[in-house]
C-alpha cells in the first residue's frame, strides 16, 4: 500500500531527511519520501495500522500531522 500523509513544519532538506530516517525505523514501512515544499510524506507499507503509527511518530519528532 501507499499512503500520503500531509504535514506541517518541514522547511528544508534536513527536515525531509529527519522525517524519512525516523519513519524507516518502523518495521512495516518499506519506503518513505518526504517533500518539505508540499508538506507531503508518502509511505509504502503492508498494514493499514502502520499509518496511525507513522502519524504518531511524525508528531513525536516535532511535525504537525494535517491529514
Automatic annotation (TrEMBL):
Family matches, as PROSITE patterns: HMA_2 (PS50846)
MF terms in GO: metal ion binding
SUPFAM superfamilies according to UniProt: HMA, heavy metal-associated domain
Pfam family, one: HMA
Alphabetical list of InterPro entries matching this protein: HMA_dom, HMA_dom_sf
Domain HMA stretches: 1-66
Name under which the protein is recorded: HMA domain-containing protein
Taxonomic source organism: bioreactor metagenome
Amino acid at each position: 500500500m501507499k499512503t500520503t500523509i500531509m504535514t506541517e513544519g518541514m522547511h528544508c532538506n534536513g527536515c525531509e531527511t529527519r522525517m524519512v530516517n525516523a519513519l524507516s525505523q518502523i518495521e512495516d514501512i518499506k519506503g518513505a519520501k518526504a517533500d518539505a515544499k508540499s508538506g507531503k510524506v508518502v509511505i509504502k507499507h503492508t498494514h493499514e495500522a502502520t499509518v496511525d503509527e507513522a502519524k504518531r511518530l511524525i508528531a513525536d519528532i516535532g511535525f504537525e500531522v494535517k491529514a
